[in-house]
Write a structure and sequence with these properties.
The protein is 36% helix and 18% strand. The chain is α/β, with parallel strands linked by helices and 252 residues long. It has one domain: 3-Layer(aba) Sandwich (Rossmann fold). The strands form two sheets. A seven-stranded mixed β-sheet has the order 2-1-3-4-8-7-9, sandwiched between helices. Strands 5-6 form a two-stranded antiparallel ribbon. Strand 5 (128-129) and strand 6 (135-136) form a beta hairpin.
Length: 252
């Protein structure tokens, strides 16, 4: 009789069996996988509602087996707040890029965090507007060339890149704020741990939570996937350091 093998890795029930539209080397898929694993592991599949952005993840609703809605550009936190108020027993999250959350949606995320309502934001920081051709975003690094900063970003002309996690951590409303990276297996494991804490902040009714994920954009960075991972480590992390910036008691 053949020995029975234990299954140690399989597709999460909450993740649809579909091919995504993301570019090769983009780490949106990694963030999706972590999100799906946690929804399964925490028993949230039947009560989850995702709010998707305008941007690279605009089709995120097509990749998961839970209820989802799409928000107008930048308005996901406001929509999520309304959904949570009217459906307090549901688990509600937003999934947003830096152009969506930190530019047109900056007021939305600041006030959602200030209110402290128990919703969760997954914030993908790849330093540009990925879907529309690689324009400069609020998180674009100094000196970085984009389609709208062809000579490189300068503080005199464009201001400094915004550290969203540190900024929101100064508010009284948030229960958990962290920045993670998706560049390596070790950091991906840490990213999942941070996302679990963010989920706990909502499930336990403690307050608002956000996890900023440093991500790659090989196509617009004009780098290979491997070079993009190295750029995250060598250039992005020094300006956007990893860590937990606010942890309220009860989240862990």
């Amino acid at each position: 009789m053949a020995e029975q093998m234990n299954v140690i890795y399989e597709r999460p029930r909450s993740w649809a069996n579909k091919v995504t539209h993301y570019c090769p080397g983009c780490t949106h898929g990694v963030a999706h996988r972590l999100l799906a694993e946690l929804v399964d592991e925490m028993g949230l599949l039947d009560k989850t509602i995702g709010v998707w952005p305008v941007g690279c993840a605009v089709l995120g609703y097509d990749y998961f087996n839970f209820d989802s809605v799409e928000a107008a550009h930048g308005r996901a936190p406001a929509m999520a707040t309304g959904i949570k108020i009217t459906n307090p027993d549901n688990f509600v999250f937003t999934y947003q890029g830096d152009g969506d959350l930190a530019s047109i949606g900056m007021a939305e995320i600041v006030h959602a965090a200030a209110r402290g309502w128990p919703i969760t934001a997954i914030f993908i920081n790849n330093g540009n507007y990925g879907m529309t051709g690689g324009q400069m975003a609020p998180t674009t690094l100094l000196g970085q060339k984009t389609t709208t900063s062809p000579l490189g970003r300068t503080p005199q002309t464009n201001g400094f890149p915004i550290r969203v996690a540190e900024m929101l951590a100064q508010l009284d409303g948030p229960a958990f704020i962290a920045r993670v990276s998706l560049d390596s297996p070790a950091n991906i494991r840490k990213a999942k741990s941070a996302m679990r804490k963010a989920f706990n902040a909502q499930v336990r009714g403690i307050g608002f939570s956000l996890v900023e994920c440093l991500s790659t954009c090989p196509t617009n960075w004009k780098l290979t996937p491997i070079e993009s991972m190295e750029r995250v480590r060598q250039e992005v992390m020094p300006y956007f350091p990893l860590g937990e910036f606010k942890v309220v008691e009860g989240v862990l």
